[in-house]
Design goal:
This protein has helices at about 10-15, 20-30, 40-55, 75-85, 90-100, and strands at about 35, 65. The chain is mainly α and about 120 residues long.
């Protein structure tokens, strides 16, 4: 799982390294990522889905992406507010991610210029 997704490059790199016969299962069940900003969320989603298509020549929507702040979904207040804040599909994805046995979290950071 990646916390700050940006354009999805890390997830795409992971997909390229996977054995092809395991890719569909991992793509649908084990890859999770979050983005808190709307535009990077959509860009990453499209990039990940396109990479999957390039690898398999079949289109499958990527449902492992959530529009949510990774740290806030651990708080009960955020979890209960999900139904009011986002669409139903995103809420279902977040709840599925919370229930998943996630063993590795890759945290990426935005590169900030000095002084910010």
């Amino acid at each position: 799982m990646t916390r700050l997704l940006e354009t999805g490059n890390f997830i795409i790199r992971v997909m390229h390294e996977m054995q092809r016969h395991k890719l569909l299962f991992k793509y649908q069940q084990e890859l999770h990522c979050n983005e808190v900003m709307l535009l990077p969320y959509y860009i990453a989603s499209m990039n990940i889905e396109h990479a999957y298509y390039e690898l398999t020549r079949s289109y499958v929507p990527f449902e492992g992406i959530c529009l949510v702040d990774t740290f806030e979904i651990a708080e009960k207040q955020q979890t209960s507010a999900l139904d009011q804040m986002f669409n139903k599909e995103n809420t279902v994805r977040v709840k599925r991610q919370q229930e998943a046995p996630i063993f590795v979290i890759i945290e990426t950071h935005h590169i900030m210029p000095a002084g910010e």
